[in-house]
Design brief:
This protein is α/β, with parallel strands linked by helices. It contains 21 helices and 10 strands. The chain folds into 3 domains: 83 residues, SRP54, nucleotide-binding domain (Four Helix Bundle (Hemerythrin (Met), subunit A)), CATH 1.20.120; 196 residues, P-loop containing nucleotide triphosphate hydrolases (Rossmann fold, 3-Layer(aba) Sandwich); 125 residues, 434 Repressor (Amino-terminal Domain) (Orthogonal Bundle). The longest helix is centred in the last third of the chain and has 20 residues.
């Protein structure tokens, strides 16, 4: 995960400060020396490191910090604020054309994941209610057009191509006309990867820009290339006047220096980060949330947003209503929850968002084993009849044997699932959800006498005599 080493180094530096009741100028300088080394090791630009450390030192040596009751916390707060500022300060979202039709031009070096990012961005915009189309303008890389078509089919977004044309500016212009005629309101133009020192290819992307007059030019950079990504961003910006940056492969880089340098060097904000291979693995970049993650303070807002994207809203609401009515959780509900959890991508990244969870704790989690366990539970429940799922209490020994045979597992596996299910119900009852032990979700039976139901006596009010 990006910033892993930086995060550990910064937290180590601040831990030394927390043990001291009063801080001296020497304590602050020692901590900042650790911060400086940590940033340089993370491949942050030297100029950016100098600016950052200078700004933190000036604020940290202020009288109100040194004399406060919790000076170490004050310094962490200052570092958090400065990290947020060098990454852009505030979230920078896409801008759309007032006319209703917006063109987004994607540019970048070779191998940065530009085509995949086009698909991720198209899906992101589609979920926001937009109607995107993609244009295949990479005429050099073999199978580039086919790759974009496959990406488009997977997410349900059309791809415009001109198979016999080798001039990308003409393809882009034709794609824009086609998109407007057919009622699409976003056109995402995928272009060839190019080196910023290749004058011919840089001239070509300028022609593409002139042909479609884009409202957004996004540069896709590979976070794992460090300062090379920053230098490329600077050169592309000088030729194209880019509007923002998409930082890819953030789940694989342990340094993350490019993300901390690029805004300061180019003046252009990071708008999105890619952190995974799946089509949904594109996040809006929030500088304050990333700073919080780097300092080990978690990112609960992003965690909640990821969960909301993953879970089926209707199923969640249905389960909530069931729990509020004190109805028992059944194995069909349990199966729904397993299937929704399986859809969650990048577990390591999501665990990193929880405050207080350290990387060494995350490393101990065997996600492969967890995924195998969920698949086993899913197979067992799917081998049951609908009646058994809704009424687990009827599952006796013979039924357990049949279920085990049906899914190719053992009776022990079936028993383990049923025990886990019972434990889940007990835990829910502790929090006030579901019926109390012994209660049944059946209509109350009338009292019987001599084989006949006893009618409830109605008390009639006697009229008062005048």
């Amino acid at each position: 995960m990006a910033f892993e080493n930086l995060s550990e180094r910064l937290q180590g530096a601040f831990k030394k400060l927390k043990g001291k009741g009063v801080l001296t100028e020497a304590d602050v300088n020692e901590a900042l020396r650790e911060v400086r080394l940590a940033l340089l090791e993370a491949d942050v630009s030297l100029e950016v490191v100098k600016q950052f450390v200078g700004a933190v030192r000036e604020k940290a040596l202020g009288q109100e910090v040194l004399e406060s009751l919790t000076p170490a916390q004050q310094i962490v707060k200052i570092v958090n604020e400065e990290l947020t500022q060098i990454m852009g300060g505030q979230v920078s979202k896409l801008t759309y054309s007032p006319s209703g039709f917006t063109t987004i031009l994607m540019a970048g070096l070779q191998g940065t994941g530009k085509t995949t990012t086009c698909g991720k961005l198209a899906l992101h915009l589609k979920k926001e209610g937009k109607k995107p189309m993609m244009a295949a303008c990479d005429v050099y890389r073999p199978a580039a057009v086919d790759q974009l078509k496959i990406v488009g089919e997977k997410i349900g977004v059309p791809v415009f191509t001109l198979p016999d044309c080798k001039e990308p500016e003409k393809i882009a212009a034709a794609a824009r006309r086609e998109a407007e005629i057919k009622g699409y309101n976003i056109l995402i133009v995928d272009t060839s990867g190019r080196l910023h020192v290749d004058e011919d290819l840089m001239d070509e992307i300028v022609r593409i820009k002139d042909a479609v007059n884009p409202h957004e030019i996004l540069l896709v950079v590979d976070s794992m290339t460090g300062q090379d990504a920053v230098n490329a961003a600077k050169s592309f910006n000088e030729r194209l006047e880019i509007n923002g940056i998409v930082m890819t492969k953030m789940d694989g880089d342990t340094r993350g220096g490019a993300a901390l340098s690029v805004k300061q060097v180019t003046g252009k904000p990071i708008k999105f980060i890619g952190a995974g291979e799946k089509s949904e693995a594109l996040e809006v970049f929030y500088p304050e949330r990333m700073a919080s993650r780097i300092l080990g303070m978690g990112d609960m807002l992003s965690l909640i947003e990821q969960a909301e994207k993953t879970f089926d809203k209707e199923k969640v609401e249905k389960l909530e209503k069931k729990m509020k009515k004190s109805q028992a959780l059944d194995l069909e509900d349990f199966l729904d929850q397993i299937q929704q959890v399986k859809r969650m991508d990048n577990w390591n990244n999501m665990l990193k968002m929880i405050p207080g969870v350290k990387q060494k704790d995350i490393d101990k989690v065997d996600m492969d084993n967890t995924n195998r366990e969920m698949k086993r539970m899913e197979a067992i429940i799917q081998s049951m009849t609908p009646q058994e799922r809704r009424n687990p209490e009827i599952i006796n020994g013979s039924r357990r044997k049949r279920i085990a045979d049906g899914c190719g597992l053992t009776v022990t596996d079936v028993n383990a699932l049923l025990k886990r299910f019972d434990d889940t119900k007990k835990m829910m009852r502790q929090y006030g959800f579901g019926p109390k032990p012994g209660a049944k979700n059946k209509p109350q039976q009338p009292k019987m006498q001599n084989g006949k139901p006893v009618k409830k006596e109605r008390h009639k009010k006697q009229k008062k005599k005048k």
